[in-house]
Amino acid sequence: MLGRPGRCGIAALLICAGVSAFAQTVGVLTVADGGVVLVRGTATYVAAQGVPVHNGDMLAAGAKGQAQIEFDDGAILNLTQGARAYLLPAHAAGGEPGVALQSGWVKFTRRAAKGKPYHYITALSRLGTSGATGVLRVSGEANELFIESGTARLVEVLKNGSIGAGRDIKGGEFVARRDGQPLAVSPRPSADFVKAMPAYFRDDLPVFLARARNKRVEPKREHEATYEEVEPWLKASLPVRRGLAERFHARAKDAQFRSKVAENLAAHPEWDPILYPEKYRKDDEKAAGKAEEAKKVQ
Question: Which sequence spans correspond to the domains of the chain?
């Protein structure tokens, strides 16, 4: 152990249908040091201790700060050194609680192994656990995981977003998953991992939920989200980014946002009908014309 530790009409319908799912409060931001950026809806906010977090929220910790989320079901997630988290709506995590992670260091735990398993999803792996405590170092080229206690199931995520090989991980084991390579399991974490790990990750994550919940702080709105602020999620695997084109489609009216979407269209082709609806109207008109001709023939 390391210690105790489509189209505009369709898009609008989809957004309206998903409002209740995205607005559901699932926990509280109980630590917000060094600047925590929150993207909610299509806007960017500065978040402070006591801000309730919702399904669909995207949070980014500062390079020298930390953010801790304490969920209503007992799960705790601490982000540091630039880590990003997207609290997935139910459809993106198979109906179970899920968090997508990008970059930085993350520690997770759960005060009681109750309820549905949690899924922690990166570009390279998907971790499922009901009550394990562990530490993740996430980058685009590699994921490294140390399970401090409990058990978990780790599977590879392939470049197309599908699931590859997997295995069960128990307390004390260290797993590395590098792009293009299979899972590598060791009985202890590497010396580099231990040396680079944030010092406070050696201890149990403190619990502040009872105190922070009473604050009910509202986040401070800064501006409409820029492409750069949501780019990692727009370019994520399809199961993670599903629904984001509909959510942010109104931002295509902004010239800079639209230009960046068009520039990176190959990474998120579902934006094509939003950027170029005229192409799809022509297809509809052709289909309608053919249907009408078929009726006349009959």
Answer: 1-298
The pLDDT of residue 253 is 96
Question: Residue holding tokens 């390079």?
Answer: 63
What does 52-88 look like in DSSP terms, one character per residue? EEETT-EEEE-TT-EEEEEETTSEEEEEETT-EEEE-
Question: Can you tell me the distance from the alpha carbon of 287 to that of 41, in angstroms, rounded to the nearest whole number?
Answer: 35
Please state, in angstroms and as integers, the Cα–Cα distance from residue 61 to each residue in 1, 20, 93, 99, 276, following that order: 26, 26, 22, 15, 35
Which run of H or E residues covers position 197?
A: none
Q: What is the pLDDT of residue 23?
A: 65
Please tell me the predicted confidence (pLDDT) of residue 153: 94
Predicted confidence (pLDDT) per residue in 13-50, tens digit = 333 334 444 568 899 999 999 999 999 999 999 999 99
Query: Taking Cα atoms as reference points, which of 198, 107, 89 lies closest to residue 149?
Result: 107
- Nearest Cα to Cα of residue 219 among 16, 21, 54, 20: 54
Residue range 1-298, CATH number: 2.60.120.1440
Taking all residues of the chain, what is their mean pLDDT, rounded to a whole number?
A: 86
